[in-house]
Design goal:
Blueprint: H1 12-19, H2 25-52, H3 58-90, H4 110-135, H5 148-178
Helix pairs in contact: 2-3, 3-4, 4-5
């Protein structure tokens, strides 16, 4: 009998195919670099908010804060993709028992990751839509940055995101019931 702790030896072609998952590593490292850019953007916007808040209106402050929330939500999305994608498609992180292990990581798979990503995209879209609604009061004025058509299309796109997330969650739920 073979030792269960001994790694299984694969033939060359299956080994090549299985090892190809490591080609995703530079992609995840690139996403970490993108997250660093978002950290710099967040700090820049936060500095702008703190230094210019005395001369800003409540609406201007609210728009900047919504922008900060947007950056955080996109950064959270990046963390989900980096950690969840690496754990699901490349290699285990072996975080069992670590006090900082994310709760959601214990039950992540490709389906769960898709649903979480869809929900994060809806959250990001909601922030953008809220910013648009706040700015909608200026429609038709020289300082208006949004148009009625823009508001309509942004709302339609947001609803498409919601419908897509519901569809993804439904398909994931159906596939779990079969297993």
């Amino acid at each position: 009998m073979s030792d269960p702790r001994e790694p299984i030896r694969l033939r060359p072609l299956p080994m090549l195919i299985f090892s190809s998952r490591w080609l995703q590593l530079p992609l995840y490292v690139g996403l970490i670099a993108a997250q660093l850019v978002y950290v710099a953007l967040f700090l820049k916007e936060l500095w702008h908010l703190v230094t210019h808040s005395w001369g800003a209106t409540e609406q201007q402050i609210m728009l900047v804060v919504l922008g900060l929330i947007d950056v955080v939500m996109i950064s959270n999305l990046l963390v989900m993709v980096i950690v969840g994608g690496y754990e699901t498609f490349v290699s285990r992180l072996n975080l069992q028992g670590h006090p900082d292990q994310p709760e959601w990581l214990s039950h992540v798979n490709a389906g769960v990751l898709k649903v979480k990503l869809a929900m994060a995209i809806i959250g990001i879209s909601s922030i953008h839509l809220l910013r648009t609604f706040i700015e909608a009061g200026a429609i038709g004025t020289p300082t208006g940055r949004v148009t009625e058509t823009g508001v309509m299309w942004q709302t339609i796109i947001h609803m498409a995101f919601i419908a897509s997330a519901i569809g993804i969650a439904y398909v994931d739920r159906m596939s779990q019931h079969r297993h």
